[in-house]
Specification:
By secondary structure, the chain is α/β, with parallel strands linked by helices. It has one domain: Rossmann fold. The chain is 49% helix and 14% strand. It has 18 helices and 15 strands. The strands form 4 sheets. A 9-stranded mixed β-sheet has the order 3-2-1-4-5-6-11-15-14, sandwiched between helices. A two-stranded parallel ribbon has the order 7-10. Helix 9 links the parallel strand 5 and strand 6. It is globular and about 65 Å long.
Length: 447
Amino acid sequence: MESAASILDGMRAAVPLGRVKLDESQVRLLCGLTERLVAARPDAHAEYQRFQGIRERGLNLPQDMVTRWLTGRTVLVTGGTGCIGSMLMEQLAALAPARLVSVSRGTVQPWRLPPGAEYREADIRDRCQISELFTEIRPEIVFHIAAQREPGRAEVEVHRTVTTNILGTRNVLDAAAEHGVRHVVCASTGKALRPYSPDIYAESKRVAEWLMTRAAAGSQLLVTAARFTHVVDNSIIADRLRSWCKAGVIRLHSAEIDFYAQSALESAQLLLASGLNPRQGAVRMFALRNLDWPVNLLDLAIGMIVETRSSSPIYIAGYESGYEPEAFPGLYDPRTAGCLSPLINAFEAAAVVPGDCTETDAFELRAPSDDAAALAALAELEIACAKSEDPAELRGPFKALSLALLDSTLRDVPKPALQRSIQLATARGAGSQAHDRLLDALRRWAA
């Protein structure tokens, strides 16, 4: 039998990267190659089944601690109608809070409707709306999950992403501090472990983590957070593959992509676990330690073809804007990466301790010692957002904030850690423009 590698070489030669639309002859050619590829990878369907099975995974929470924390409390959840938010609302309702309220823009129906839960409409981007809501409900604990979560959409909807993920997060944290909330638990992403990224979504969540550290350092508010990876239950990847299998061309960024995944249940339970034993003055950040083997995207696509009996062809299309082809090689130290969550970078690894839920890792994320330049850049970005929704008008101020925050972050990293990251990065050779920019910054601060 011919090898999958040789078939993939034929696919790449038949239709080069970056084609927005394929003609009929290209589609016919890829259809034949895809049939041969499916035959060459008979185990791919098992990868599809493993991916779907991740939905059933959950955590062994220290239930007594969670119950003592949340039972009888007034709890507010932003984004409680989304996939993770709905699962969290269900988990919270079972803990008998005094009052459980979800707030969202009202554009999405809840996935679940737990008894006793209330649903309100408000936009976290509207500071006055959020303040009024906090005044009325007077929450003791807030779970902040609302966000624009799609990397590809973020590159198009820059204004919505920035105003939601950055300014909206600041609005929630400010309202919590002003209205005497005891504790805010925030949802973040593994993409935020990058000190710098040119991608709008990843960098917006990185900025949000910085705002969390400022809120924790500047008030009596307790702030904890959880980093998620790809959630199977609302998988953008699976939705796209399923849609393409029904009709169209299955467009893969690359045939060599592996990605970690977790379930909505794990995500909701991770948020609950991350609220235990907060620390004053710093953000206690949590992530799942064992995410199992990464999922192979090509096998997932082939498995979806087999499952749906699709005749759609696979096209290796190249990376879209918003998706980084490769992680910066200096972010993971082989000496520690194997025993820690992959959602924690090499600069954070030294401070990691086991969470109260034994399946989690935790570390303290602190505000930079000097972030004046980043604050000034944030103010300029906010002014730009008020003036225009044109992505071209916002990318400049957004990049200025990203670079200012990069310097603020690296300033506080111990020099041996910077030098180790430089060593790991240079050993891999040339990278992308974004990687070169990060490497230059590392060298500057290590000097």
